[in-house]
Every structure is written in structure tokens, then in C-alpha cells.
Q: What sequence folds into this?
């Protein structure tokens, strides 16, 4: 964590050092030689303060080498080295599926989203979404209403006010019902518009697959779909307006319960 606080040292460089030397004392020595002991101590103090704040806020800080870190993320080329989690971290390595969609769904979209979410909860899937208005809210709330467990991927530090404001109670309900809030952003990180788009990468990456409830022509749903395809995750659609394939990759249509069952079999065969 201290390396990530150093100037001009990002996740890729940190991972390079960890994989090349595999010796923390040697890495610390090299970083002190490069940046000086004053800079290193300042960054180390920042990390110590963050860890103390996390403990006080009941937030877990997981590194990629821990068993509780989601193994699905490790299949990605640029997986986050650190993950912040509040709630039931045992969900991170259970079977999971991301449900995504527009912030302004139609009544039909909501009805379809509720139906597929209920079915997935009944067969034991953890529901992943982004706590946004519309389809995300539908997926999280339907999951909770059916005694399921859900993971919300956030785009700010977990000690920051939940966005959107109207979903703060939903976030609290997720924790209360043994769900989980996660973020790749350090504590104290305020929400920025670009973080919402960046968050979409982990939303698809943490799941075994992605189902699109409903989408518009532009927005975060399409960003998540593109990430899903790049990550070679199975992608399905309830929305009939979505194209049947992208770059020769089939987007599975879910028009019936039989279609959903076939998609679930695909998910389990690719794990």
C-alpha cells in the first residue's frame, strides 16, 4: 500500500516490483533509495492512518495475495492490487453475476429485471451491481426482498457519502442483510464522474457473467458491456433492442426461463 502512495508509482509498477523481487524488505530498500527516507516515511504514515481509519469504520482492506480477495478479478490483466470491502467478504468468492442497466428503465424493464433477479437468487447466485438509480437499484432491492445477498461496487472511498443520495438507505440495507460494499478507491477518495465509468470494469470483472436488463444508446451500461467482452465474460441481454453480437461474440438473448437456465449452465461451465 505504501508503494501506491509514492509519486509516479502506480499499480503496474508496484506489481512489477512485487513479482520481480518477491521480497518486501528489498522492495522497501529500493523505494527508499529512489525516493528518500522522508518521502517513504510520509507515505507509510498515510497508510498507517488509513488502516486505522478502516478498522474504526469496519472496512476490510484486502490485497490481491489474500485468500479472501475475489479470484475472478485475478483473471484480469490489470486487476486492482487493493480492494476495500465493507460487510460480508465471504461473498467475494461465491458464484456471482452482475446485473446492469439504464438509470431510466421502462416498466417492462423493471418487471423483467425483478423476474431474472428473483430466479438467480433462488438458485444461489450473489447479485452484483453498481448501486445506481434504475436497473441497479432494481437488482439490489429485488435481491434483498427475496432474502438474497448482493454486492454493490462503488466509485468512491467507502468512508464517503453513498452516491446517489437516494440509495444511502439501500446501501445500509445491503450491509444489514449480510451483503457487501466494495471499492478500489482508497478511503477519503471523493466521487468523480470518471470514477463511475472506471468502476464499471470491476462490476463486470468480479462476476462470472453479466446480464443487461435494459440500456440506452450511451452510458455506463455500454461501457460495462465492452469491459465484459474484453474480459471474456459471458454476456446476456433481456433488452431486445441490444444487438445480437459484438465482434462475433454472441450476446445471449434471455426471452424465457429456459434461456436463463441455459445461460446459467454456460456460466458454470466456464468457471
A:
Amino acid at each position: 500500500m505504501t508503494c501506491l502512495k509514492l509519486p509516479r508509482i502506480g499499480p503496474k509498477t508496484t506489481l512489477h516490483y512485487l513479482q520481480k523481487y518477491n521480497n518486501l524488505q528489498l522492495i522497501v530498500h529500493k523505494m527508499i533509495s529512489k525516493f528518500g527516507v522522508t518521502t517513504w516515511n510520509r507515505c507509510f504514515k498515510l497508510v498507517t492512518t488509513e488502516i486505522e481509519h478502516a478498522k474504526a469504520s469496519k472496512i476490510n482492506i484486502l490485497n490481491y495475495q489474500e485468500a479472501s480477495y475475489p479470484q475472478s478479478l485475478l483473471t484480469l490483466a490489470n486487476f486492482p492490487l487493493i480492494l476495500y470491502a465493507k460487510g460480508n467478504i465471504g461473498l467475494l468468492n461465491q458464484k456471482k453475476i452482475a446485473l446492469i442497466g439504464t438509470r431510466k428503465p421502462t416498466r417492462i424493464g423493471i418487471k423483467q429485471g425483478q423476474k431474472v433477479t428473483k430466479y438467480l437468487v433462488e438458485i444461489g447466485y450473489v447479485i452484483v451491481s453498481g448501486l445506481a438509480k434504475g436497473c441497479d437499484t432494481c437488482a439490489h432491492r429485488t435481491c434483498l426482498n427475496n432474502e438474497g445477498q448482493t454486492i454493490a461496487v462503488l466509485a468512491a472511498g467507502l468512508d464517503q457519502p453513498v452516491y446517489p443520495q437516494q440509495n444511502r438507505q439501500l446501501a445500509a440495507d445491503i450491509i444489514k442483510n449480510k451483503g457487501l460494499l466494495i471499492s478500489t478507491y482508497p478511503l477519503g477518495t471523493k466521487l468523480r464522474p470518471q470514477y463511475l465509468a472506471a468502476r464499471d470494469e470491476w462490476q463486470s470483472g468480479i462476476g462470472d457473467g453479466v446480464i443487461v436488463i435494459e440500456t440506452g444508446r450511451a452510458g455506463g451500461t455500454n461501457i460495462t458491456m465492452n469491459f465484459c467482452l474484453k474480459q471474456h465474460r459471458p454476456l446476456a441481454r433481456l433488452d431486445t433492442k441490444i444487438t445480437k453480437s459484438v465482434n462475433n461474440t454472441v450476446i445471449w438473448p434471455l426471452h424465457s426461463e429456459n434461456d436463463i437456465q441455459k445461460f446459467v449452465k454456460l456460466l458454470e461451465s466456464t468457471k
